[in-house]
Design brief:
With 82 residues, the chain is an alpha+beta fold. It is built from one helix and five strands; from the N terminus they run αβββββ.
Length: 82
């Protein structure tokens, strides 16, 4: 196989598996707020980046540590999280 054919095959393979990041979820809103928790709901992103959305990571900001912390251990499959 010539280098040109190898390069073309590599490029074509990358086109087949290449996906972009999905867009952000839309319509994020709290639907229940208590002193200890909040239930969030959202809509799927308008753009999936070329792959199905398989789950969501929910994070909260901790100002004392100046970092974002995940709220779930596994990706949330639904569009609601408490």
């Amino acid at each position: 196989m010539s280098w040109f054919c190898f390069l073309c095959a590599f490029f074509f393979f990358n086109l087949l598996i290449h996906t972009d990041p999905p867009g952000p979820p839309t319509g994020l809103k709290p639907i229940e707020v208590t002193k200890d928790s909040v239930t969030l709901t959202w809509n799927e992103p308008d753009e999936d980046g070329g792959s199905p959305i398989t789950g969501y990571w929910v994070e909260r900001y901790d100002p004392e540590q100046d970092k974002w912390i995940k709220c779930n251990k596994m990706p949330v499959k639904d569009t609601t999280f408490k």
